[in-house]
Amino acid sequence: MNHLLWLVPASPLMGATILGLCGTMLPARAAAIIGTASVGIAAFIAILIGLHWYAAAPPSHILIQHLWTWLTLPGLTVDISLYLDPVALLMMLVITIIGTLIHLFSTAYMAGEAGYSRYFAYLNLFVAAMLLLILASDLLVLFVGWEGVGVCSYLLVGFWFQDAANGYAARKSFIVTRIADIAMLAGILLLAVKLGTLSIQPMLARATELWPHGGAWPTLAAGLLLIGGLGKSAQFPFQTWLPDAMAGPTPVSALIHAATMVTAGVYLVVRLHVLYLLAPDVLLAISIGAGITILLAALAALVQSDIKRVLAYSTISQIGYMFLALGVGAWSAGMFHFLTHAVFKALLFLSAGAIAMRLDHEQDIFKMGGLRTSLPLAFWSFLIGAASLAAVPIISAGSFSKEMILGAVWFAPGIGPGLWAAGLLGALITATYSFRVVFLVFFGPAHTPVTGRSGAPIAVPLVLLAAGSLLIGWLETPSFLGGDRLVMTLLHPVLGSPAPRSALAILVEAAGYIVPLLGIAIAYTLYRNGHWQRVAAAEPGALRRLLRTGFGFDALYEALLVRPFMALVRALRHDPVDHVVTLISAATLQLHHTLRRSQIGQIRRYAAWLMAGSIATIALLVFA
Amino acid sequence: MVSLSWHAPATLAAMLFIIGLIGLLARRSLIFVLMSIEIMLNAAGLLFITAGMRWGNPQGQIMFIFVINLAGAELALGLILLLRLRNRLTTLDGDAANRLRDVQA
Amino acid sequence: MILAWLLIIPLLGGLLAWPADRITPMLPRAISLATLLLELGLILPLVHGSGAAILSAPSPITSGRWLATFDASWIPTLGISIRLDLDGLSWLLIVLTTIIGLFAVIVSWREIDHSTGFFHANLLWSLAGSIGVFLALDLFLFFFFWEVMLVPMYFIIAIWGHEHRRRAAIKFFLFTQGSGLLMLLSILALAFLHQRQTGVLTFDYVTLLASQPTGRLGTLIMLGFFIAFLVKLPSFPVHIWLPDTHTEAPTAGSVILASILLKTAGYGLMRFAVPLFTAAAHHIAPIAMALGTISIFYGAILAYGQSDLKKLVAYSSISHMGFVLIGIYSFNALAWQGAVILMIAHGVSTGALFITVGSIQHRLHTRDLTRMGGLWTDLPRLSSFGTFFVVASMGLPGLGNFVGEFLILRGVYAVSPTIAILAAIGLIPAALYSLIAIQRAFHGEANAKRGTHDFGTRETAMMLALGAAVIWLGIDPQPVLKIAAPSIAVLLPITHAAAIPATRRGT
């Protein structure tokens, strides 16, 4: 089975190629089938490989498939080969399976849209690029996937290109990540020059061999790569692009801006964790930045009125948790949270999409309400997703992973307890804002009439993802619930075992379980009984405006970066150098005007001048 | 063989040249201008021969033959231009043919 | 002899095409197409068979192991001969020239409708000039072809261009001709200097390589070449002819200009300006790198500010060529490989962009971005190809331009991390102008019904071929790298060997 690994990225790529080349000639149904099936095949193969792995893991838990040599020059050899280890396997399964479900959902969600086949071409291309990103054995090939997903994200956010606002959001998402990517590119260049290879495993081996713990080069390299990761994962200070990226179709938000692409930064750090272990300063920066991101985004999510923006901020905040885990070296806890988050966040987005479809694309939560009875499926799936996001103990996947992260953070030396407190506060706010949405959308009086029907392509992904959100946490349970360690066991060969957790203070553990419930209770008191609903809908005060804009980072960047750039563009637009040349030509013309006076057209005058000149010359020659 | 002083022919050449020059500058009629040019050419030719005589070098005479040829060719062209000009401007006044000057000057 | 044929065929083809339009306007097109196909058939097989063996075993340049050579005397008293030599680098660029030339002919199929004969004659002669530039190894001959390439281009712009074509053509001619004269002075000075040293007057490149003038005189002579190539590349601050010329030239003219003529400058730097004056080239390297970096930013920022789509692409070319400049003056083999790849990829992607802009202009009769918008609604095929090539020229990894840019950055980083990082930052404005171009041309609300027709078969096929080339360069550049490697291997060691004592002398 393993030799079919190449088909996993190739199948969606082929789908994209077919749809891209002759999508407009195909009927919509064929486009939908090709789009979904190509990812479905990838998922099927991925599952087979996963099962095979479970039965008999390859030697040293690594599967390498060499495809071809991209370039080989003295001092730089880059192979295009696929590298599958347990971490990549987990990512691959999540991407292909959730990807298939989202494609299926899209067939109904996008029905009747202009550019139906174009949509599936982009989405397939995205899946292919994402798979290349995670399977790349070489950092440069990873970068190919990295930029590829960026471009697909750009194209999909701006999918409804008629509206200029969508185009703006798409450009913003691409430019912000590109700025971060340049730092990443610099990091790649640094690694290539200092270590002589970009092939990840030899590179990491050489790094540990050559570089001391905490040295300047590993810190610089890890830091630069981290900036790229933070940009892609919309972490502080790059978080501004993600809420705007919600301009794209909702399934796109579910796949790209929740489940997969935005976690690429997490994957990058995990993939290169050997390098990061050499740079403790960077790890510290990661955890502090993660703490800031968690709180910033959670607070911003508390006051949004667009359901997708709430979810966008929650994504930023949840990825913050993953980075928090990475910052304290709890790699597998971060990966586990990636897994649960991918499932429940995709579920939340798809539910939001299912709701919006039936409400004539209304996304304002204050204009919804009372949908519990009219949209039962969407209600239950959103509720399950929100419970997972809020980390309701035992019944939700999110609680298992979040608890694992908080437990690991508590034990981190130094600022561990402080970070833990930030994480806990974040969990409280998370529970509050997620159930704020639940109460506002599904309870109370209805504001917008429900129309249409949802078919199987909508229902199947919702049900499956809801089941996943409920059950997937049981792959990895705390000791008092049986202590399953399926994810840890899988990841163990790459990431090592996490610190033993037996010493976890009972109070710390209990706090992690109680706080979400507390948050839900707050949401209930505030939003269930009409009073705060009216307040929330009223004219916002200064604080709420600040929170709603995500602490005004957009305005800050506008003033610091965009305006100076635009001023520069305006100053240079007409090419000042060109003016210099225009000056030369003007001077020549002036000279011409001066000299033309002597040209009067009378032969006799010319002859006289000729004579005078000759005489003068001769005189000069004779007497001088 | 009478050996002639070169002073007399040289003076004659200079005089001829000045006469031609004055004619060129003073006369408006292009016929006279052409004739003046011929005179000047002949002055130059005479000077060549004189110089050849002075240095005992035949190249002066060779040059004179060149000059005659040149003068013939030039005269032919000049007369053609003159005829064309007469047809166009119905005059032989050289100052009237000032179209070559810069328009605004 | 085959190299002579490479030149004779397009020259003859031009002579044939000129009067052919008296029979039917179609005939010159067919003649040009046939000529270029013949040319392609002639050049392509040269890297196989014995060529492959030569490529795989690099040798010093002076030993004269070339893919093909041709030597005939021309003006023996002055030491001028018709010496043509083909190595991997020339081969790549000639193939690019021929293929882009084919596309230029196809593009003009509909666009050029008056005096097709003279047009195609000029087109073929200009191509012949560039092929000569890539082949000539006699400096005088090189200069001769350098001029041959320009004069027909002047006619193409001045006769078949757009509104302000006269002005643009004159600007183009003055800049390139003026800088070409500087180069001629330098060539003469170099030859005379060599004569004073050895008593032999020759313009032979391989002989003159040994001359290596140093000191102030060396720098002065080198500057003649350097400035000529800088103008042609073009680099800030002598770039200003390019935007005007591109804007006014007909599509085929823009394509040839961007895809081929600009490459002669990069080639000239690699073949002449650096190896002939290694010490002086090292002296000027910081300036060259600074100019390259400024070009990257300047081109990108100005591209962002343009509302004329052709001007935008033109300024983006300046930005891309800045990368080539810093790559060459890093004297690093990786960067040189990158420069070669980038030149080829830029030739293909920018050529495709100019074809796209030309098609838009043909349909909407405007290049003004403010009057476009929403083209995707009416012209989905054109717009998707346009988007693809914009993204390619932006340097999306996986496509040709990225390979070039990355190798250049990697090579430059080894020499000067600061310049490498600055240049990398230049990729941010590249994204800015690329995306704004997509937005303003293809996205947005569709303007009033235009009733235009999308790409037909001819245009689609052309775009598919160019797109395939960009993808191929992006995912499997190794063959190109392999072909260019021996040339770079012989051009660069000369540089190093001669530079080391020179710098010692300097200190």
Automatic annotation (TrEMBL), chain A:
**One biological process term in Gene Ontology:** ATP synthesis coupled electron transport
Q: Name one GO molecular function term.
A: NADH dehydrogenase (ubiquinone) activity
- Principal subcellular localization: membrane
Q: Which GO terms describe its cellular component?
A: endomembrane system; membrane
Q: How is it placed in the membrane, per its record?
A: Multi-pass membrane protein
Domain called NADH:quinone oxidoreductase/Mrp antiporter transmembrane: residue spans: 136-412
- InterPro entries referenced in this protein's UniProt entry, alphabetically: NADHpl_OxRdtase_5_subgr, ND/Mrp_TM, NU5C-like, Proton_antipo_N
Extract the Gene3D superfamilies matched here.
1.20.5.2700
Extract the NCBIfam families matched here.
Answer: NDH_I_L, PRK06590.1
Under which name does UniProt file this protein? NADH dehydrogenase subunit L
UniProtKB/TrEMBL annotation, chain B:
* Reactions performed catalytically: a quinone + NADH + 5 H(+)(in) = a quinol + NAD(+) + 4 H(+)(out)
Superkingdom, taxonomy of origin: Bacteria
One Gene Ontology CC term in the entry: plasma membrane
Q: Which InterPro entries match?
A: NADH_UbQ_OxRdtase_chain4L/K, NUOK/Mnh_C1-like
Q: Where in the cell is it found?
A: Cell membrane; Membrane
Q: Indicate the transmembrane segments per the record.
A: 6-25, 32-56, 62-83
Keyword line: Cell membrane, Membrane, NAD, Quinone, Translocase, Transmembrane, Transmembrane helix, Transport, Ubiquinone
Establish whether keyword Cell inner membrane is in the entry: no
Q: Which GO terms describe its biological process?
A: ATP synthesis coupled electron transport
Major place of residence: membrane
Q: How does it sit in the membrane?
A: Multi-pass membrane protein
- Entry's EC annotation: 7.1.1.-
* Example of a GO MF term: NADH dehydrogenase (quinone) (non-electrogenic) activity
Similarity comment text for this entry? Belongs to the complex I subunit 4L family.
Q: Function of this protein?
A: NDH-1 shuttles electrons from NADH, via FMN and iron-sulfur (Fe-S) centers, to quinones in the respiratory chain. The immediate electron acceptor for the enzyme in this species is believed to be ubiquinone. Couples the redox reaction to proton translocation (for every two electrons transferred, four hydrogen ions are translocated across the cytoplasmic membrane), and thus conserves the redox energy in a proton gradient.
Complex formation: NDH-1 is composed of 14 different subunits. Subunits NuoA, H, J, K, L, M, N constitute the membrane sector of the complex.
Q: What is this protein called?
A: NADH-quinone oxidoreductase subunit K
Q: Which gene encodes it?
A: nuoK
From TrEMBL, chain C:
The family annotation for this protein states: Belongs to the complex I subunit 4 family.
Which Pfam families did the record assign?
Proton_antipo_M (PF00361)
Tell me what topology the record assigns in the membrane. Multi-pass membrane protein
Entry's transmembrane regions: 33-54, 88-107, 119-137, 172-193, 213-231, 252-274, 280-305, 312-329, 335-358, 379-399, 419-438, 459-475, 481-502
Species lineage, top-down? Bacteria, Pseudomonadati, Pseudomonadota, Alphaproteobacteria, Acetobacterales
Spell out the GO cellular component terms annotated for this protein, sorted alphabetically and separated by semicolons. Answer: endomembrane system; membrane
Sorted alphabetically, the Gene Ontology BP terms of this entry are: ATP synthesis coupled electron transport; electron transport coupled proton transport
Q: Which organism is it from?
A: Acidiphilium rubrum
Residue ranges annotated for the NADH:quinone oxidoreductase/Mrp antiporter transmembrane domain, each copy included: 136-423
**Listed InterPro entries:** NADH_Q_OxRdtase_chainM/4 (IPR010227), NADH_UbQ_OxRdtase (IPR003918), ND/Mrp_TM (IPR001750)
Protein's UniProt keywords contain tRNA processing: no
Q: Does the keyword Membrane apply?
A: yes
Keywords attached to this entry: Membrane, Transmembrane, Transmembrane helix
Subcellular location(s) of the protein: Endomembrane system; Membrane
- Which GO terms label this protein's molecular function in UniProt? NADH dehydrogenase (ubiquinone) activity; NADH dehydrogenase activity; ubiquinone binding
Protein name (database record): NADH dehydrogenase subunit M
